Amino acid sequence: MKVQFHPLGDTGLQVLFGSDISEETNQQIRLFADYLREQNIEGIIEWVPAYTTLTIFYQPDKIGYKDLCKKLEVIQETLHKADFPSQSTVYEIPVLYGGEVGPDLSEVASYNQLSEDEVISIHSAQPYLIYMMGFVPGFPYLGGMPKEIATPRRENPRAKIEAGSVGIAGEQTGVYPLETPGGWQIIGRTPVKLYDPEREEPILLSAGAYIRFAPVGQKEYEEIEEAVARGEYKVKSYAKGGAHDERGFKQ
Description:
Layout: E1 4-8, E2 12-16, H1 23-39, E3 44-49, E4 53-58, H2 65-79, E5 89-97, H3 105-111, H4 116-123, E6 128-133, E7 140-143, E8 158-161, E9 165-169, E10 172-175, E11 180-182, E12 185-189, E13 210-215, H5 218-230, E14 237-239, E15 244-245
Parallel strand pairs: 5-13
Antiparallel strand pairs: 1-2, 2-4, 3-4, 5-12, 5-14, 6-7, 6-13, 8-11, 9-10, 9-12, 14-15
Helix pairs in contact: 1-2
């Protein structure tokens, strides 16, 4: 894949990876970011991955735009010979669907002429790639939601969406890591904390990993919620295509 470089003000540069939002494009962006981390180019402050771009911020007094482009071109040439990461982590996120914690499940079902159980089954049937993180700390931008449950945002956004709420907006689905206003159709809630400033690693998820939603009942939801509060719950994870694990992603 041939990338393009464009200036972004006096201290930024945007690397464009085409216009298609896809897993292949995401892999290219992640691999490019990995090489940036390894090269440790003087003058680069940070980089921000998105669906089809990687934005790089730098100090022009330490490296000029043209010199930075030359170093990035070397990375691009290296990518042509590199292999993509062979495995990604899937995080299993338990979700209680419907009822008080999923007040819009019936709306999503009605809009798509499905039953609520069918919406739950479709929504939880496959892993979703985390394309990028943003909006608020810990918020995962997910790809791959089936179109048969796509539903427009609410006409009147809510002033408060509870942390852990799982929602649908258009052809996207996501999880609110913090209590914020929002206009997504809320279909459930997870007791797992995607963001906790008290943890050694505050943000649970990362771009390039996957989420799979696992439906749970009221009793199991409450048990997990209590375990999270005690700091004893471990988020289930496994390599994509591999066996389940509980590798220390402790809440």
